[in-house]
Write a structure and sequence with these properties.
ABCC_6TM_D1; six-stranded mixed beta sheet; elongated; 48 helices; 57% helix; 1407 residues; ATP binding; membrane
Amino acid sequence: MENSFSFKRNPTYGKDFTMSCPEQDANLFQKLTFSWMNCLLWKGFKNPLELNDITDIPPHLHVENTSLLIKKVDFKSKYSLLKHLISHAISNYKIIIFLKLLSTALSISTPIILKVFLWYIQKDANEKEIYIGWILSFALFLSAFLLNFSQQLSLWNSGKLGMEIRGSLSCVIYKKMFMMSNTSRKTYSMGRILNLIGSDVSYMHEFFMNVNLDLILYPIQIALLLAVLCFILGVSGAVGFGVMLFSLSLTTYISSRMNKYMKWSFVHSDERVKMVSELIDGIRSIKQYAWEKIFLERVEEKRQLQLMFLHKRLARWIVNQMIIQSTSGFVLLVTFSLYTVLGNRLTADVAFTALTVFVNLKRPIETLPLNIQKFLMVLLASTRIQEYLLANELQSSPFDILDYTKEKVDPNHYGDVKIINGHFDWKDGLSDSQLDMNKSDNNYNNDSNNDNNNTSFNISNNNLNNSNNSLSLVKVLSQFSLDNLEDAIENHNLHMDINIDSVEDGVLKNVPNNRATVNLDSVLKTKSAKIEMVEISSLTPNRSSPLSTPRSATRQRVPTGTFKDVNFTAPKGKLTVICGQVGSGKTSLVSALIGEIYRVDGVVSRPNSISYTTQQAFLTSSTLRENILFGKPYNRDRYIKVIYACSLASDLLQLPGRDLTEIGEKGTNLSGGQKQRISLARALYSDSECFILDEPLSAVDPLVAKHLFEHCIQGMMQGKTRILVTHQLQFIPYADHIVLLQDGEILQGTYHELQQIGIDFESIMKTKKLNVDTHHLNDNVPTPKNHTRSKLDVIKKIEALITEDENTFDLIEKSRQFVQEDLVSGSMGFGAYSDYIRSGGPLSVFFIVVCGLYLISQCVFQGSDFFLKTWTQRNIDPDPGDRFYILIYFGFIGTFMCLLGLRYFLITRYTFGASRSLHHQILQCITYAPCQFFDQNPSGRILNIFSKDISEVDTQLLEGFNEVMYGFASVLVSIGMMIYLNPIISAPFFALAILYYFIQQVYLRSSREIKRMESVSRSPIFSCISESYNGISTIRAFNEHVAFIQNFQTKLNLNLRLFFYNFSTQRWIGLRLEFISSVVVLCSAVFCIYNSDANPSAAGLALTTALSVTNLLTNMVKQITDLEVKMNSIERIKRYTEIPREEVTETNASEYLEIIKELQEGWPRFGALEFRDLEMSYKKGAQPSLIDLSLPVLPQQKIGIVGRTGAGKSTIGVSLFRMVEASKGCIMIDGVDISKIGLHDLRSRLGIIPQEPFIFFGSIRANLDPLNQYSDLDVWEALEKVQLKNAIQNMPDKLDSLVFEGGDGLSTGQKQLLCLARAILKNSKIVLMDEATASLDYQTDYIIKQIIKEHFTNATVLTIAHRLDTIIDSDKILVIDKGQMVEFDSPQNLINNPLSKFSRLVIAQTH
């Protein structure tokens, strides 16, 4: 079971996690040889490793300790973060510098020893002394081994450095998330933060693990080796050095261009992941609206833009690789040609010593341009991370980013909750500040800054407070189109300073404190308290950072509200009720109290200990119990009382694991009312000094609302300060203090005080009175039994349901919501490779043509080395001269370059095609997956596929396949050449090959399992980030950031723990394989001593080849393992492409011709609806949520559906839209069984207003009419009907105004009204309204009810509602209880029956 957040349980860690790392107890020899890994590797060789087999990492690598790395960063320069990390590496890992210098020195000594050895073997037999040959042979062996030994130790220490930086950056990015202000959250979406950790931190990690000092030492190594070359070849070596420098400069330039295209691909990757995140979050609404194709096109559009830049990068990668691979051969050609032209004779000791120099040069020459490219990527990644860390923060951050355990506490004494002369701004106090549109050379920067091309516009206006001035600004901006403006910023450093010294904002004035003597006239004479919605520039300013906002935000518009002169009081220990119309600012006022809005001026006084419930309940992916406890200690007695007070007793009976039932992400397996009550229970259990409750009663029926109010708000919360935001006006008379937001004014006082100043609550509540005769109910309703006795009975039932043992196997199995991510054991099957290759092209062509080209090209390249033997021997008679040899050698190099270009073209064609195809497949499969898939898989796990895995497929697999095929071809050709030149070496070689194979198998069996576990351990990290981001305001209000950060660190430590042991296994095998390779060098050298008389040139070539095989074998094993690890991404993608899909989207024409005809004629034409013995359950084998539901609905009938929360009301809509297929029975619409209709055909013809409104990032118009089916006039009419026309018209861009993901900036009521406008536009014959007006005030609800009544006169409407006045005018009322129909009759008939459940609901709301 994967819990994204769990306070008590961490099943991912395993029982042996507390065991210390074996390295800590190892002796010096074991540390130097990595023998401390033997026990783990041997265990993995015999049986597949499990998580419990992996012990802890050294304490200094724990995230809790490494996160202190960022503590002393001084963010004053452009790359201050990167500079600080480099400084840390230099000061704390000096051993790496020593080992790098040692390996550089040894790389120089090896060719010098070889030259002496080759000079020795060319002597006459009578001049040779055998012991000298043995000494030189052992010198070569030691030089080769010590070189590789120092490199392995260097990599080991660099790996630990990389882990420190990865853990530190990941942790500080997560911490920063809890400190982001409103403007920062609009700039940094969840997808962008996931990309920061998934991609940018990975680049930083890889740089410090594999690159860092090589950027400095490789040029030194190249210079020293070329100095040796000059010593051997004289001026010819200097010319070769010049050719080498030209090659490096050319590859560096190409790398910089590649980096530019990669940078732009990052931009579109961020947007793509953001859109995928939006698709996953709103998948149910998207399916209900039949918008899958629209969202697929949106994501694919961004994907195509990303692929366009990746394609351009690949074109330059091909050229770059051709230059890198052919440089050594081309330099040899130039050098040897000039050497012979100058009159020198090319001998074996000169040729093969030079060849050895180039063998040692090959790695730095090939790697340096790649390292430069990686360095440029790190510059970009560090800038993106630094910019994020400098993003605007909350005015009162909940903690210090460097010390999250240190809470910031206001020492003031708190009595009443107050706001005194408050001035608040959603724009973080930037409404009157300078708005910068700086050229962003720190985020998506251009390659250079040119002051001569700097164009600046400075626009200042000291009184920019009217439309004319606003228009002047628009005129200046309109000189550029949006795309041209971006180009101008990119190419000409366009800089715009917009100084707005004075902007007239709305003023929020409160009623005078002497409210007892205030009358309505005096209130009207006071300055109105207005909450003005203002549209700001398309840039989101960043107050705390000198860095400008990322360009991805330049298209966004941030709706902001400004409150001035706010005076608010909530008396200590009393109940304060806040009410008002939709969009009047209730939630904003609450946000000001909890510190979510920037306070420009004034004082906010509140207790440090508060509990907060949001309008849309935030739940974690853990058990119901853990959601209620929320980090607090478990107190059984209080817990049981909370369960009763929040009316959760009956829900526990329905849940399979009772209170240990795992809650799906965002509460997907709960009803809206259940989610709200769990959220309320969390607040109640916390026992804080102050409770701030934002609309907790909107999603529950009247009976439950009454219970919650009496037993929770006025019960267990009694004596505490309670601030309740509600539209349930029946509870207003019970409030000690009332705050009314109406027409931009804030009025407050007691019920009677507000009546005295003219606030007529009775007239307001007239709109909620039921238009039926209910006077007889008081007399006829049965007298309830003893209330106290009933309460005790319920509590006893709860006690019986609550288990003390959380580890009860049966309960745990029943409670599971999420499925475990598959972890395949054993070797990577050929199927994964073949699936990947087939995604890019024909499998046969790949193996015959592409693999063949790699083998042939390496034969040609190493054939040029073999030709040197012929050149140095000059055994062609008659001697054709040096020109002949030069031309032949040139032919080898030219042919190799041609084959090189062809093989790179073909492999990039395959990998690019596979990347495009796999993303398309996974996107299609995820989008059309059934809803159960999303219930069982956290969004973080799915996003991991689209971020990390797709990123590896895009950029890593090409290099992986290229390196493996190149290494395999090189080793094959080299071994074949060695055996051909010196057949006697085959005996020890094959003996060593057996040992080599055994060591490789020991390594592979453990390494692949550890790496798979590491890959799987990433998903909980992404899920944790996703979940925390969605609940930031709740977490901050409860002050539970410490628990969430510790939970994140736990998951991150697990991932680092697995990486540590995977990295350790690589060092273990690397050291042993390189020792074997060094023994091969020794054997080859010894055989050369006794075989050199026959052919010194052949002996020299054999020895040179043996030296090259030393690196080739080790690198090949590493590359094979790395490729197998990267192929885990393909495995996961492949598994997700095999998930079951929903039923067909289009109706099958061959089977249902009559239905197709009906569809073509405008089905449904009447709206007749019939449920026939319908039964539906959300999980196979689970208790049905609907049982034998049978009822007819006539065309144009209006059906109201009521029942207790969790009774199954919304399940009727789920069945109607076939979100979950019925297990029994059917639904008929106009006589057609909907199970025979394609899902798209069905859903696109039904109308819905969902319980949780779905708003996506885009314009207002796109949200209302994404298919662009209606005219602007139609859209405006729909907006007018839902009372939103004025609000939209006041936006600068009207219908084209942008709204953020999730409708951020809009109230829940406004979002519901937008969804209602969609339904009005669609004008379907059958409409489902699922709590469509739950978040609306009664006045707005009354108006909307009249509009719905008029507009949907000819439609069949199913209305699910807890507000009885919403459905009291329905033709019939359907009462659902425990998934069964218990009542179905007209409202009046049900009310006339005093024993009916509906009449009890009426009493609860009206009395």
